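Hey L., structure's done. Input below.
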Amino acid sequence: MDESAETPPEKTEAPIAPEPPPTPEAPAKVNDLPDDYQSPSLVFFWVVTVVSTALDLASKEWASRRLNGYDMELHAVRSITIVKNHMDLQYAQNPGGAWSMLRNLPEIARRPFFLVVSTVASVFIASIYPRIDRRQWAMKWGLPLALGGAIGNLVDRMRHGWVVDFVHVWTKKGPNEYHWPTFNVADVWIVVGVGLMALDIFFSRKLRTRLGAVRDEPVQETPPLERQG
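Output:
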């Protein structure tokens, strides 16, 4: 072999690219709820909702059977006196909302309006409950009671297009009589539920403020230990 022949150049390794600097770790995410958060019981929520709805529907069924019609002996509509000159039970068909609101709307607009409002309110209430703290006792009771009332009236509107009312409150001063719009048990649940929710808004502010402060508080990173020696 001719030694004068050119020898192939030696292969050189490609330079190793420097490693990219380490990406700083993202700060730890703050939990949505504090450590002492106590989730509400869904069993309690649905038990109260079902019981309140059942009581409302049962009372309406009783009123439809017991109070509907005309009393031939008294020559008046059937009624049961609870408190003389102040409260009695009389059957009524209410095409409007609670306390007979918007009952004069045309049927083509009234029925779809109340069906949509009742459905949206029910979904909204059911979505709020899991987010409250079980120590918010007023909200814990208010939400399922309001939902039970809304469902009770919704069932009536889907079945009949109107709601059965039968609680009649009135008073008499001299020759004048003052009548409150006839209502039902569902209306009572709704008013009590909304009232309890209002109480929670005014009197549970301290708890909600504390929960909000924990959610918004930035995470304090622990400084690294300094080298000793």
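Confidence is low (pLDDT under 50) at residues 26-31. The longest helix spans residues 42-66.

-- N.
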